[in-house]
Amino acid sequence: MRPLEMLRTSRAEMIVLALAVGAGVGVGAIVFRWLISVGTRVLSGHADYSEAGHAPNPHVPWLGPYFVLLAPVVAGLLYGPLVQRFAREARGHGVPEVMLAVARRGGRIGGRVAVVKSLASALCIGGGGSVGREGPIVQIGSALGSALGGLVRLSEDRLRLLVACGAAGGIAATFNAPLAGVFFAMELILRDFTAESFGMVVLSSVTASVVGRAAFGDAPFLRLPAFSVQHGSQYLLFALLGVLAGAIGVLFTRVLYWIEDACDWAWRGPEWLRPAAGGILLGGLLLALPQLYGVGYPTLQRAVGGGYLAGFLLVLLVGKMLATSLTIGIGGSGGVFAPSLYIGAMFGMAYGDGVAALAPSQVGVLGAYGLIGMGAVFAGAARAPITAVIIIFELTGEYSLILPLMSAIVLATLTSRVLNRDTIYTLKLRRRGIDLDGDQERQALAGRTVAQVMESPPEPLRADDTVARAAARLSESAHGVLPVAAEDGSYLGTLRARSVAEALAEHQSVTVGDITHRTQPLRPDTELPAALQALTEAHGAGLPVLAEDRGPLVGWITYQAVLAQLGSHRTGTAAS
Prior knowledge:
The protein is mainly alpha-helical. It has 22 helices and five strands. The strands form two sheets. The protein has a three-stranded mixed beta sheet. Strands 4-5 form a two-stranded antiparallel ribbon.
């Protein structure tokens, strides 16, 4: 029996694989943080520019503080083509793609994602992208787990579990928080709690944490003075903070996707150039507020330590929302986990300052408001209360915060649920027609693309063709609609049989171009639920598929093709 076959048949295979994934992700976290450090030093000239004020880059001192206008542009010119060419799923914050892979794709994630995500995120953060490193390391670890599981040909259920092991290891190694890694994977990635899953994820998380501690040490991320609740009224203050922070988390989610939509609407150039072009706007924001450069942990720590006045804390809160949203909107690569903690710290400290001004005898330790704000805003955005409680506890090692922390985070989660149907992660999927909580039968098309079902395109009509010729062609067509193209083959729109019939009945002297409908084409990578919605809105029997705007036709999609895919899913489900 071959070694790989022995591993597959062994009852201990998942233990060995979970340990291997944990160790691999721990090493990956070390390498990834090193890449970020190198990128930051090269592009800013500092270990962390967020605490350097408006200092110039020593590599280009003649530019003074204005080098930050160029840093995101240079980074975008490097990672934009890299992502577009090799792994488009490496764009954005990463966690939704892992959730989708586990829920709908059997845990399969392309092996190249880990490499591309590492490089793209390191360049993005190093060039000032105001995003976190946790989302990327989750996607990197998950890709590693998927690759290892595919190598030994695991079943889909076990492959999903190994992907979750990779996600847990990523959080554990990055934050030195093994418990938070476990619950992040169980609560957000697997979305299921079983004894076997919990055990495997724990093994991977602990292993990754041990590897990470060997490189980064095991000191708490934040240190606070001793804290205790001295008055019962303080619980009410923390409860109110939880409600307000939950609303801030929802606001962050909405701003993120509003700005992403605005960037989609405004940009008309090639996708690989989008990060560099948008980097000009990001650079302007960083010039005004250098504290937003990169992940921004030094700024967060200074804020929790009481280093900023309330007014400036609110400026940083709004600035971080805009900078993170803009970084993601222009096609940057990085996470939203750390920005939610940053926003929460700023809001919590500003809230604490307000309490201190109104009721100084009740306020207690100000830093506690910052920490509870961190957990509550994350809970409001991600709706993962267990992870939020554990991560703040592990970041500080301060158990005395646990009661007000739990109450604030639960209230933030409830507030988020009232104000918003989706989380910061699931909204990205719902916008693509994917509902992870929806009925499985209705979601059968989720995760499938137009490229999988499109047909060969029909021969297009020309804009200068006569209506009589169009009528002859449409009479032979099975769909009652044909594409229209210019002389160079570029797509112009579609022509429906009804439009031709009306033109003939009214004896109109028109050409095909005059009665062509400017139907929005689909792309090969469009998700099928979105394609089905587009077919319905177009009131047509078919839609063209283009590889690029105004390019030539590469395919044609119809209701029959989409329904055939749904039928094949039902057949496969019944057979299994």
